Amino acid sequence: METKIWIIGSSSGIGLELVKLCLQSNYKVIASSRNAKNSKELLQLKLIYSQQLELLNIDVSSNENVSKSVDEVFHIFDNLDICFFNAGVYESMSIEQWNISNFESMINTNYLGAVRVLKPLVNYLEKQKKEARIILNASLSSYFGLPYGGAYSASKAALVNLSQSIQPELLRKNIYVQIVNHGFVKTRLTAKNDFDMPQLMLPNIAAKKIFEQLNKPYKFEISFPFILSKFLRLISLVPYKLSFFITKKFLK
Q1: CB–CB of 33/89 below 8 Å?
Q2: pTM of the predicted protein model
Q3: Among 21-30, 67-76, 110-119, 200-209, which is the least confidently predicted range?
Q4: Could you confirm whether domain 4-250 is CATH 3.40.50.720?
């Protein structure tokens, strides 16, 4: 039986690599991004996998566009097994560099973008006669706010909190929501960082770790790499006096 997946945020990085892995495993894929139909990489894949891959533009900042995009997905596929939400923007800023538009952009895409997709998507998925998964790409930074990353980690923490909130409701509808909390991945976004990134991963490695979970028994959180995830989880659990003693060492 064919697995049908919709990957939102698929023109580069983890999303693009996940598209490749799914196609290689004979999944039927809808690849979406703001300019998916003009993406050189996705168009090349379309030439190779013409019967498996569909390209669909989506603007997750627009309520109307998202609603139309979800309708189009279920026009292409009569049902859906997996939706992977990977749309995201990122800026690292000190307080002196704060720009309210950057805060708004990250909340609008990383968090509200997912909210816009979830409402119409769930309406379709709950009518299916089979279970489905919604996977939301968050970040290990959601565990604890780190210097210069507050705007980004706040948007991801909101996404995680929302997922925790809706998990019991969606489970009753046979929809399994999952979050991915991953560390630093070498992409155009992290290229903006001017600090050392421990356990920096290539996008294909991160995508492989996510792909490996698609056919495994359900668990709410997918997290990696191991050492960094355990370190940041520990920071979130110890008393603030100790956690702030640790995080202040990250200041430039």
Answers
A1: no
A2: 0.95
A3: 200-209
A4: yes
Residues 6 or more apart whose Cβ sits within 8 Å of residue 234: none
CA–CA gap between residue 60 and residue 65 (Å, rounded) = 7
pLDDT over 90 (residue 185)? no
The Cα 70–Cα 83 span in angstroms is: 11
DSSP class of 95: G
Say which residue the tokens 């139309």 belong to: 68
β-strands 132-137, 175-182 pairing:
parallel
Each domain of the chain, given as residue ranges in start order, spans 4-250
**Tokens standing for 205?**
């490695």
Tokens 């991953």 belong to 182
Spatial CA neighbour of 15 closest among 37, 30, 28 = 30
* Contact between residue 247 and residue 235 where contact means Cβ atoms under 8 Å apart: yes
